[in-house]
Amino acid sequence: xxxxxxxxxxxxxxxxxxxxxxxxxxxxxxxxxxxxxxxxxxxxxxxxxxxxxxxxxxxxxxxxxxxxxxxxxxxxxxxxxxxxxxxxxxxxxxxxxxxxxxxxxxxxxxxxxxxxxxxxxxxxxxxxxxxxxxxxxxxxxxxxxxxxxxxxxxxxxxxxxxxxxxxxxxxxxxxxxxxxxxxxxxxxxxxxxxxxxxxxxxxxxxxxxxxxxxxxxxxxxxxxxxxxxxxxxxxxxxxxxxxxxxxxxxxxxxxxxxxxxxxxxxxxxxxxxxxxxxxxxxxxxxxxxxxxxxxxxxxxxxxxxxxxxxxxxxxxxxxxxxxxxxxxxxxxxxxxxxxxxxxxxxxxxxxxxxxxxxxxxxxxxxxxxxxxxxxxxxxxxxxxxxxxxxxxxxxxxxxxxxxxxxxxxxxxxxxxxxxxxxxxxxxxxxxxxxxxxxxxxxxxxxxxxxxxxxxxxxxxxxxxxxxxxxxxxxxxxxxxxxxxxxxxxxxxxxxxxxxxxxxxxxxxxxxxxxxxxxxxxxxxxxxxxxxxxxxxxxxxxxxxxxxxxxxxxxxxxxxxxxxxxxxxxxxxxxxxxxxxxxxxxxxxxxxxxxxxxxxxxxxxxxxxxxxxxxxxxxxxxxxxxxxxxxxxxxxxxxxxxxxxxxxxxxxxxxxxxxxxxxxxxxxxxxxxxxxxxxxxxxxxxxxxxxxxxxxxxxxxxxxxxxxxxxxxxxxxxxxxxxxxxxxxxxxxxxxxxxxxxxxxxxxxxxxxxxxxxxxxxxxxxxxxxxx
Length: 771
Fold this sequence. Notes:
Oligomer: single chain
Strand content: 5-15%
Radius of gyration: 30 Å
CATH class of the domain at 271-411: Alpha Beta
Helix content: 25-40%
CATH superfamily of the domain at 271-411: P-loop containing nucleotide triphosphate hydrolases
Number of helices: 25
Largest sheet: 6 strands, antiparallel, barrel
CATH topology of the domain at 271-411: Rossmann fold
Distance between the termini: 54 Å
Strand order of the largest sheet: 1-2-3-6-5-4
């Protein structure tokens, strides 16, 4: 709740007096209040529902002396729907940007849900007639008042006296009731018999059944600066809200690249994926078992996140509690929502993006629900590929084994070669982006729609356009290159990603000036690169990383704090991290790779100071970028080969999670070869090998061969007893060689394994045989 949105609502009475109530700004000019606050005078015997709406309404914000004019634009007519909307019509009302409120409801069966409200009760009337603000706190038990569509609020700080038989809470009517940042109700009644300790609020679930209310709120959320049509309000789960990423709604796009993100969704839903989202909707509707899971994999840019967002939108419309789980690690999952997860009364759709980097998060979510008697739960995981991480997660989590088969993986394929299909997608994207571009700062004075008429179309038959994101990127760059800031210095053969990053630079400069960051373009770009690559969990991590960025050396701590603050607002984080990244992913990966090409040692110092989590993220980004860029592969090789003891375990973990693990295995082999005389370094890597070989046979052969080499060298060096591990690794390697049809090599490895196991059981008395 934002207390600066709380307003006094005054209605004129027939005898010349005024009645005061409370209200809350749900948009810049729309106030939510109680219906009985704005009815005409009555004798107190008739229900306010039978009374006419008052036409003389005034409103006061915070500490202002002025009363502003308003009019009632909607009022609940049902006997129990004591809610109204007042539009502020006064031209002198201060204009300000305001994000739409988030609406909510209780969805779980557990008790004691914290709540709060702010309003203007009679007991805080000031001598000049104004009301001081009361900020009450309390709790609700969701089952109480459920049949009546109400919440019963047990107040923590109730007033201890009554005034002339009138409720001390008089004037609090209309106050918005919040829980965990969501507006869940409107305060209406001080219940008799509780001495002011229990208030009643109308639940927002009651008013959301009224389409006129929803249409009014939606219309008032429509601002000329926001891309696309306004989203209708939705009800989120008050108890589970902290589990999910906030539904970011930008007042206006930050930059051209922002328009390509799944969060902004400036381009309409791609109907070429309609079959897949329909299939997922059927999966949601299935009643075969309470808990089911799906894994969708595909390269970056194929539309996995956009597909999940579309499913999320449709599921929420169907009454599901859903969202993108935001915690990057299991220990960052909020405890209270996890405890309440199993008591949810509504079906749950949990979406985990980048699941290959967060298997512990998936495991913890599954442990929190009962697959037999809990709520209906659907878990959707998105990843680049089903590597070793998937096999390991599935094998270690019985709930997941109940929910999905190991080989039941949905592969999101490329776009078909159909030229007309791709051309239609290009023109649709260009049309939508031409509407959204004027809402980007600095680009509003261009007739972008007119430019679509003569827009050059690239050769969409090329392989890069198997990705829907690349088509959208091409349309955006084509538009920008027709505009007033055409980039020509890069030459005709410049990649679309290079052009778009150059078009981002004015935004970086302007934003940096706002935060008093005085740096050149190269230093700004290096800072964005490190933020995209590594991220930061908190300010301490942020400052530690920035202190090692090329171009920021010599900056004082205060200047680095300014850079940190700039980065937090440049691309706001959608999860729990401090910095967001340049998105879409492929654009961020391209930035990292091109900066490394120009500054090969750019990451040496930042990665040397990285935390394990930052190093893991950085290796993932470099591995993905390395699929298309030699500079990223070179940086990875230097990190692994030269610092095997520190980075080897991370490289192995990322290899087993990556869509393209071959290169990482190759550099690990090179690192092991170079560390032959350093058994302590090899011992660090030895602890990171998985207990079982990966599911993918070629990868498994490479991993088990590497494992054999490490254990053999450690055993020879005599730094520990690795005989049992060598025997098992040799046997696993023999099995993988056999699967690949390399019979002679498999036979030789198997014979060696037999000899090692004989040594363990017969000739190695006193040896430790367990790993």
